Amino acid sequence: MLSLDQIVERLTEIVGARFVSTNPIDKINYQHTLAYGAYKALPDVIVRVESDHEGRHVVPEILRFANEHKIPIVAKGGVGMGISSPLRGGILLDMLGMDKIIEVNPTLHYAIAEGGASVYSIHYALRRHGLMLPNYGTYGSAVVIGAMVSKGGIGYGMTRYGWIADLVIGLEVVLADGSIVRLGALANQETEFGPFQKWVHIPDLLGLFTLSAGSLGIISKVCLRAIEGRREWLHDYCYTFRRDQLENVQRAMLQLVKGEIVYDIHFTDRWQYYWPMEEGLYNKAAIPDDAWFFLKTIIWAREQDELSYKEKRMRSIYQQQGGHEVEEIVQKAMGEKPQQHGLHGWPDYHIMGPDGWCSAIVRHAGMFAVTSKMYPISFLKEMYDLDEAAKRECGLWNPEHSPQHDSYVTRDLAVKEEYFVFYNPYDDDDLARLRRWMGKVQEFSNRRGVVWTAPTLSTKGSYPYERLGNAYDWVKQIKQLLDPNNILNPGALS
Ligand SMILES: Cc1cc2nc3c(=O)[nH]c(=O)nc-3n(C[C@H](O)[C@H](O)[C@H](O)COP(=O)(O)OP(=O)(O)OC[C@H]3O[C@@H](n4cnc5c(N)ncnc54)[C@H](O)[C@@H]3O)c2cc1C
């Protein structure tokens, strides 16, 4: 086994002294995630990789070295939620220098970006060609595309177009032994046609890397399907429902998704607006007192005829189910607001920052914790009721804990549910309440067959994996085949 000094020496030879650090301050800074303080694991050494303008990089050399000496290695993207914490120490591989947008193809509607390119920069590059990625999250410039494939990234637009992984048509991956494999459209890259579709004449392997948490290979390139898009094609609406109308909400969602009428539905509850209303940021009088559920809805329409048709169908479904249209939320919490700031005229749903929807809440309620999981729309009522009961039992159903829901509705007729609780991270009693509630959510969710996004063994425990039966056994065998020394994010998947 090599000593840390020997490891540092060899890594310095590969990337240069400027890109290797064992400084404790650097290690602590790289540990900061959205999961505030929940992950304490530190790497032994941080290595940054940068590609040059020709796209050359040294990821294969680093992996070959780590593999030869059985050193754990974890890819690190942006701000993160904790799943790139190096549970067994070793190397933390900072991917942010692999940030080039290699190609935008306006004829065939695809973009190729390096694994460390921010999703934000991909959106920006596409816009300049009148294109868009029909999935944008609330992370601003904080997260990178390789990570979003690996952790199951989602965003606005998924009601019509699905996960970010659903837009991936090609991947280039560096395996543990340093070999490079090109999959899907990128397997065609060296040909005269170039990349053009996900399916090539071998079985599809792209999905192996989705939800893999960097434990099967390091994604060096991603090829994504884009669509034509203009800001003026996106139209915002908000319908509210009372607390006793959750079954109606469910029915409206099912009809809207099945009918392929809307581009996005975002499901929130009144807790999200409680503090903004108290602060006077939102006009309380413009929001019905009994409005409990808020369905922020976006229609995507190229021209007036298409808009009129979709609007008519959407309105008729919401009205039939007893929904009430509320303009105040459209103006204050949807796409119009960022336009006032000249953000290229595009919706930009920051959760933090001066206009972020979380900011007013954080001012009153502290730090937030969030669960992240998927279940069928038809179980929304049952799941919401269970969550409310759990929060009440744990003393969290109050403005001080702002126990809101903030969820995406997906084209798979599912809800990508985010249950929030705000808490005081310096108060042990509050932490105990939070943990108790999280345990209850895991219990009722796992039993019913929930699908976790950004899962790892360390965050979710073994049950969600074991319940997949021999499918999980297969994944472990594939991991063994691709990474026999278990160097890639060990402990995340197996
Ligand atoms: C303000 C904010 C808002 C957010 N909003 C959303 C949202 O709307 N939708 C959403 O989906 N998420 C959202 N997130 C969560 C975000 O998706 C996670 O933080 C996620 O972990 C993003 O990845 P990252 O770039 O931060 O990288 P990391 O957390 O460092 O990486 C995530 C995983 O991918 C692996 N990985 C990283 N790069 C590679 C690579 N090149 N090859 C292989 N594996 C790799 C890592 O090892 C890790 O397991 C938000 C986060 C923030 C900070």
Number of helices: 17
Radius of gyration over C-alpha positions, nearest whole angstrom: 23 Å
Shape: globular
Note poorly predicted spans.
none
Small-molecule components bound = flavin-adenine dinucleotide
The CATH architecture of the largest domain is 2-Layer Sandwich
Q: Order of strands across the biggest sheet? A: 15-12-14-13-18-19-17-21
How far apart lie the N and C ends?
23 Å
- For this structure, what is the CATH class of the largest domain? Alpha Beta
Structural class by sheet pairing and helices: alpha+beta
Largest sheet: 8 strands, antiparallel
Describe the structure.
The chain is α+β, with helices and mostly antiparallel strands and 494 residues long. The protein has two domains: 1-229, Uridine Diphospho-n-acetylenolpyruvylglucosamine Reductase, domain 3, CATH 3.30.465.10; 234-452, Vanillyl-alcohol Oxidase, Chain A, domain 3 (3-Layer(aba) Sandwich), CATH 3.40.462.10. It has 17 helices and 21 strands. The chain has an eight-stranded antiparallel sheet with strand order 15-12-14-13-18-19-17-21, with helices on both faces. Helix 13 packs antiparallel against helix 14. It is globular. The mean pLDDT is 93. The chain binds flavin-adenine dinucleotide.
